[in-house]
Automatic annotation (TrEMBL), chain A:
Belongs to the SF3B5 family. Residues 73-96 are annotated as: Disordered. This is Splicing factor subunit. GO terms for biological process: mRNA splicing, via spliceosome. It comes from the Eukaryota. One of its GO terms (cellular component) is precatalytic spliceosome.
TrEMBL record, chain B:
Belongs to the RSE1 family. InterPro entries: Beta-prop_RSE1/DDB1/CPSF1_1st (IPR018846), Beta-prop_RSE1/DDB1/CPSF1_2nd (IPR058543), RSE1/DDB1/CFT1 (IPR050358), RSE1/DDB1/CPSF1_C (IPR004871), WD40/YVTN_repeat-like_dom_sf (IPR015943), WD40_repeat_dom_sf (IPR036322). Associated with the spliceosome. This is Pre-mRNA-splicing factor RSE1. It is found in: Nucleus. Keywords: mRNA processing, mRNA splicing, Nucleus, Spliceosome. It comes from the Eukaryota. Involved in pre-mRNA splicing and cell cycle control. One of its GO terms (biological process) is mRNA processing. Residues 855-1177 form the RSE1/DDB1/CPSF1 C-terminal domain. Residues 464-778 form the RSE1/DDB1/CPSF1 second beta-propeller domain. GO terms for cellular component: spliceosomal complex.
Length: 96, 1211
């Protein structure tokens, strides 16, 4: 039993340390959010990939980099409403 | 998956990446001299700017086998040397020192902090070092920040603390700098966005309200921990920070740069903001806001507190930003900031880093295109450029204000002194031999926007010709000579004709000399300045020794003539037609004394060589004799054993030239080499043992079909060998790698050459070709690729060659750029007032931007004429942009070739949108110098890939593969199939097989069945490969590259391949059961290698004369690499072992595991890293010996193998 607890604690520690580590209740939104953030981080972190995108868009790399980091704020839209809460009807432009 | 493969490749970089991701200024040698460290791809390069010549020289380039993400430098208090901190993908922080003595980087500290790889929460993206060198902060994009305290111990060695954490969950970092706070606790400033609230709010409200914060992190040196000291909201569009000097030099704080705003912020100061001026002009959008993309702060010497910023906007305009301080009663500035000022300075290409040198130069590392080195003429202090001050603008970026404008103008404050070639970004590349040389050239398109270029790369050394003068006859040989030992420069040029000799004096003008004492009615065999004041002339009938006008003649024995001669300052050796060798040595009184015995050789002597007299000795102790029985003998010249044979070497052909010379080697000393040129055009280099005279370690190279002649010349104070065959070659020790290189000269054929030194030309060479005398020099030995470039109009996308004429066609397109038609319209509009209508050269100022617009054209490039140029340009209109091109011969037009260009209309890149796609057809006229538009066909998507296929056109339209034939009014569909999962980006074909490359899911093999006119996919890939380029290596195998920097080779199983081609197999293929939602069969991986750079083109080609085929790939950062296939298993084993030893003996500098680095995404397979193996020659001798011992070979043997594999197939 103690082992199970320890495993649980270990997992929680990992989840806190490495953002994006999954757990049995990971929602599809969380998962997508992580994947997108990881993707943007990778594009920013690999200079050739960033310059590939900057070249295609005909924008300076510094600008593309800032755009990508800002996209990490909420890459796949707002989270789904929690259970029990009324889904709100929002009319809002997709700013992505 | 097994890691062994039955196919092995040797990966070599023939041109390292030329991009600069970051450049840093510092005193890395520990002297007062400022140097520049640059990070380019995986390479760390040290540049030495030379203010006197206005040049930037590369001192050292080190491949760290890891991705350099950020670099920073720091200096400990009281020290004069800057250290370098590297943030790479190794999950470790490395501190590196440059050792000027050994010219190496040496690692001082390596501290592990996290996983390897480029990850979201592993620090490495941002790095900042305290200006006083007390601490550094390394941060990830999200959450994690680590602070290391730097100090020194009692032995004055640098120490590094364990990391202090400053993590905060849910925080994204946009920019990070260290604050200049003098000697109070180090503070770091970060520009952050917190997403944790937005992540909790389903309404999306929180996201809208998310603010950008400027956060100060203070390292409390006393308590040894880090606190978030201060935080405030800033401009919501802010993206970049710059450090403002503090302590005694200024008010401290940061400049926060956002969209059209530069704001001064500090915790105890007021906020000041100025807008970024917008460009004014007829073609400029007056509403467009600019952002700052690069910048540099510079403190002026002498006056404390004087500093300025140069900030660069996305258009490339530099703005000078300064701060005014409140003055106290006495007129002295206090620490309070009064206002911020901005004014236009100059316009230079967009930079990734700017460095201002104390000597008054600006180094601009171009983001795309060449790097520039400018000199400051003035600092824009008193010009009539309008200055905007913060008093007139609100501090809140969201408040209303009226934008400010300026007129861009040509450079006024800066002068360009040097432009350093950079191929970054390299978009496409083709290998072809258009100049009729032995070896092919590489043709590339690179650059972006108006600074795009077409570049031709040729293997060779750049030669600058000083004189080419016509002579009365055709000489057979040329020499230069000094008159006395003490002369600094050569005095005579001696030319030998078939039956005469001409002596010319070098001076202001070159004129004939009649009183030289030389016999002028005979040909000459050798000329030498002998002893102190003597001159000798060897001619077929004897030797003429001239001392101060007195002539001594040594006649050749009766019925015999002299056939070959070799001389140096003290010795003369001649060979007689009878095969005898006569040896002379200079006596103490300056006269020539004949050695009493003659040595008889077995055959006719064809050539002789004496080395130079080694310093401090009286004679060269060896004589090399080449005979027509295909041998070279080494004779001793020592007094005890004069003319005794020491060793002999058999050759494949009769030797035509010999040269004994000492050259620098990779061991750090010099080695005596015997260079041998053969009648067959082969050149050999062997090591001549200085004691025993043994010949060992022979390396050979084929230079050309003519007999090889060898001459010792001096280039950059280094003895080099000039080898002449059907083209001239230079053998030299590479200044950086210390390896021996044999490189052709980019020069006309020469028949004879000699050293030349005069007042005007210190280190030149003189050569003859036909009846021309040429004097030339070589200025740079390091660079063995010659670049020629032709400017293009827009960012090139593809390069195609005319099937048989030497012309190239490029398609170019620029997003968000005003097309030419609209530009012309705006300029012609009556509202454009005089000043607005001036058109500035787009190469400097860029094309005017316009959101959603495309500017695109097709250019015809003539690379080989006298004046390489763009012959014609066809602009596309209607917001169409070219995306693909091919030259297709149509069988229906009797094989006539057409240029096919695929375009898209109103394209938006992300997410992919367009209104229409077109395929344009152009007919070649005037041998391809002209294009005639035939028609265009509307298609449902912009075709991203086009190739000729069996006399028709094959196009990839989205997921669809379609065959078109040429009709009168448009292209006619013949067959189609949906074969790719997402988007076809590359096509290759052989026979009936088509290789389809998908943008995301790798390759699909498709077979075309002519009987039923069907396209059937039959084999595809196991993993996603975001393909960028492919080429067929053979019928079954395809080499390709992907967006993440991998190069791979895939092969279709033999059985599947055979089945697909069986006649009548279509029913079987169509009905074959899908395997896991893909094609029925899977490809197997043959080789996989991570290159770091993003491959943009790949092809199978041959690079050297008689070399085997290699796979050549080009990367976006300007890298050109080759993959050389191994022929024998024995070599594979050897190099695998060597690579293993190198991994452990020369581990990468930044602590990345080499094997994991090369297997970044997929484990490396079937590929040996030649760049790592080539570092063998840079190892210290004991390590070399150790590895050699382990491999059971000698060090020389290993070095020979490494150099052989390169020279056999590549440069």
């Amino acid at each position: 039993m103690a082992d199970k607890l320890r495993t649980q604690q270990e997992l929680e520690r990992l989840q806190a340390k490495y953002i994006g580590t999954g757990h049995p209740d990971t929602t599809s939104w969380e998962w997508k959010n992580n994947i997108h953030r990881d993707t943007y981080a990778s594009m920013v972190g690999h200079p050739p990939l960033l310059s590939y995108m900057a070249l295609a868009q005909n924008e300076p790399m510094a600008k593309v980099r800032a755009q990508l980091i800002r996209k990490m704020l909420q890459p796949v839209g707002p989270p789904p409403p929690r259970e029990g809460e009324e889904p709100m009807v929002i009319t809002r432009q997709n700013s992505d | 998956m097994a890691t062994t493969s039955n196919m092995f490749l040797y990966s070599l970089t023939i041109q390292p990446p030329t991009t600069i991701t970051q450049a840093l200024l510092g005193q890395f040698s520990g002297t007062k001299e400022q140097q520049i460290i640059t990070a380019s791809g995986s390479r760390l390069t040290l540049l030495q700017p030379d203010p006197r010549q206005g040049k930037v020289n590369t001192i050292l380039s080190h491949d760290i086998f890891g991705i350099i993400r950020a670099i920073s430098s720091f200096r400990l208090a009281g020290s004069h040397k800057d250290y370098i901190i590297l943030a790479t993908d190794s999950g470790r922080i490395a501190i590196v020192e440059y050792m000027p003595k050994t010219n190496k980087f040496s690692r001082i500290h390596l501290e592990t902090f996290g996983k390897s790889g480029v990850r979201r929460v592993i620090p490495g993206q941002f790095l900042a070092a305290d200006p006083r060198g007390r601490a550094c902060l390394i941060s990830s994009l999200e959450k994690n920040k680590l602070v290391y305290v730097l100090n020194r111990n009692a032995q004055a060695e640098l120490t590094i603390s364990s990391p202090l954490e400053a993590h905060k969950h849910g925080v994204l970092v946009l920019s990070l700098v260290a604050l200049d706070v003098g000697y109070s606790n180090p503070v770091f400033a970060a520009l952050e966005i917190d997403y944790s609230e937005a992540d909790q709010d389903p309404s999306g409200q929180a996201r809208e309200e998310t603010e950008t914060h400027l956060v100060y992190y203070e390292l409390d040196l006393g308590l040894n921990h880090v606190v978030r000291k201060w935080s405030d909201t800033v401009d919501p569009t802010a993206s970049m920070l710059f450090q403002v000097p503090g302590g005694n030099d200024g008010p401290s704080g940061v400049l926060v740069c956002g969209e059209e705003s530069v704001t001064y912020r500090h915790s105890n100061q007021e906020t000041f903001r100025v807008p970024i001026p917008r460009r004014r002009g007829a073609t400029e959008d007056p509403q467009r806001k600019r952002t700052i993309v690069a910048g540099v702060m510079h403190k002026l010497k002498g006056s404390a507190g004087a500093f300025f910023f140069l900030l660069q906007s996305e258009d490339g305009d530099l703005f000078k930003v300064t701060l005014d301080m409140i003055e106290d009663g006495g007129g002295n500035p206090t620490g309070e900031v009064k206002r911020l000022k901005i004014k236009y300075f100059d316009t230079i290409p967009v930079a990734s880093s700017l460095c201002i040198l104390k000597s008054g130069f600006l180094f601009s590392a171009g983001e795309f295109g060449n790097h520039h080195f400018y000199q400051f003429e003035k600092l824009g202090d008193d010009d009539d450029e309008e200055e905007y001050i913060s008093d007139d603008f609100p501090t809140d970026a969201r408040a209303a204000y009226s934008p400010v404008y300026f007129y861009p103008r040509p450079l006024e404050n800066l002068v360009l002194v040097e432009s350093i070639d950079s191929m970054n970004p390299l978009v496409d590349c083709k290998v072809a031999n258009l100049t009729g040389d032995d070896a092919p050239q590489i043709y590339t398109v690179c650059g972006s926007g108006a600074r795009s270029t077409f570049r031709m790369l040729k293997h060779g050394l750049e030669v600058s010709e000083i004189v080419a003068s016509e002579l009365p006859g055709t000489p057979s040989a040329v020499w230069t000579t000094k008159l006395t030992k003490y002369d600094e420069f050569d005095a005579y040029i001696v030319l030998s004709f078939t039956n005469a000799t001409l002596v010319l004096r070098i001076g202001e003008t070159v004129e004939e000399v009649s009183d030289s004492g030389f016999l002028t009615n005979v040909p000459t065999l050798a000329v030498q300045q002998l002893g102190e004041e003597g001159l000798i002339q060897v001619h077929p009938k004897g030797i003429r020794h001239i001392v101060r006008g007195r002539v001594n003649e040594w006649p050749a024995p009766q019925h015999r003539s002299i056939v070959a001669a070799a001389t140096n300052e003290n010795q003369v050796v001649i060979a007689l037609s009878s095969g005898e060798i006569v040896y002379f040595e200079m006596d103490s009184d300056g006269s020539l004394a004949e050695y009493d015995e003659k040595k008889e050789m077995s055959g006719t002597v064809t050539c002789l060589s004496l080395g130079k007299v080694p310093e401090g000795l009286k004679r060269s102790s060896f004589l090399a004799v080449g005979c027509d029985d295909c041998t070279v003998r080494i004779l001793s010249l020592d007094p005890e054993s004069t003319l005794d044979m020491k060793s002999i070497q058999a050759l494949t052909a009769a030797p035509s030239a010999l040269s004994i010379m000492a050259m620098e080697d990779s061991f750090g000393g010099t080695t005596l080499y015997l260079h041998i040129g053969l009648h067959s055009g082969v050149y050999l280099r062997t090591v001549l043992d200085e004691v025993t005279g043994e010949l060992t370690d022979t390396r050979q190279k084929f230079l050309g079909p003519k007999p090889t002649r060898l001459f010792q010349v001096l280039v950059q104070n280094q003895p080099c060998v000039l080898a002449l065959s059907s083209r001239p070659w230079m053998g030299y020790t590479d200044p950086l790698t210390k390896g021996f290189m044999m490189t052709p000269l980019s020069y006309a054929e020469l028949e004879y050459g000699w050293n030349f030194s005069s007042e005007q030309c210190l280190e030149g060479m003189v050569g003859i070709h036909a009846n021309y005398l040429r004097i030339f020099t070589i200025e740079k030995l390091g660079d063995n690729l010659i670049q020629k470039s032709i400017p293009l109009s827009y960012t090139p996308k593809r390069l195609v060659k005319h099937p048989d004429q030497p012309y190239f066609y490029t398609i170019e397109s620029d997003n968000n750029t005003l097309p030419q038609e609209l530009r012309a319209k705006l300029l012609a509009a009556p509202s454009a007032v005089n000043g607005d209508a001036t058109v500035l050269p787009p190469e400097e100022f860029g094309h005017p931007k316009a959101r959603g617009r495309w500017a695109s054209c097709i250019s015809i490039v003539d690379p080989v004429s006298e004046e390489p140029s763009v012959l014609q340009r066809i602009e596309l209109d209607g917001n169409e942009a070219a995306v693909s091109a091919a030259v297709v011969p149509f069988a229906s037009q009797e094989g006539e070739s057409f240029l096919i260009v695929g375009t898209g209309k109103d394209m938006i890149l992300n997410p992919r949108q367009f209104t229409e796609g077109y395929i344009h057809v152009y007919r070649f006229h005037d041998d391809g110098k002209d294009l005639e538009f035939i028609h265009k066909t509307k298609v449902e998507e912009p075709p991203m890939a086009l190739i000729p296929f069996q006399g028709r056109l094959l196009a990839g339209l989205g997921k669809t593969l379609r065959i078109y034939d040429l009709g009168l009014r448009q292209l006619l569909r013949k067959s189609q199939a949906d074969v790719a999962p997402h988007l076809i980006v590359s096509l290759q074909t052989q026979g009936c097989r088509i290789i389809v490359g998908d943008v995301q899911q790798g390759l699909t093999y498709v077979v075309y069945k002519p009987e039923s006119n069907k396209l059937i996919p039959f084999c595809d890939d196991t993993i996603n490969r975001w393909t960028t380029c492919t080429t067929m290596v053979d019928y079954e195998s395809v080499a390709g590259g992907d967006k993440f920097g991998n190069v791979w080779i895939m092969r279709c199983p033999d059985k599947v391949s055979a089945e697909a081609d069986e006649p009548g197999s279509e029913i079987h293929l169509v009905h074959a059961r899908d395997y896991l939602h893909g094609a029925p069969n899977r490809l197997s991986l043959m080789a996989h290698f991570y290159t770091q750079d993003l491959p943009t083109s790949i092809c199978k080609t041959n690079l050297v004369v008689g070399g085997q085929d290699v796979i050549l790939w080009s990367g976006i950062q300007g890298t050109i690499g080759v993959l050389i296939p191994f022929v024998s298993r024995e070599d594979v084993d050897f190099f695998q072992n060597l690579e293993n030893h190198m991994r452990s003996e020369d581990p990468p500098l930044a602590g990345r595991d080499h094997l994991i680095y090369r297997g970044y995404y997929v484990p490396v397979k079937g590929t040996i890293d030649g760049d790592l193996c080539e570092r063998f020659s840079l190892l210290p001798n004991d390590k070399k010996q150790m590895i050699a011992g382990e491999l059971d070979r000698s060090v020389r043997e290993i070095e020979r193998k490494i150099s052989d594999i390169r020279t056999r197939s590549a440069f």
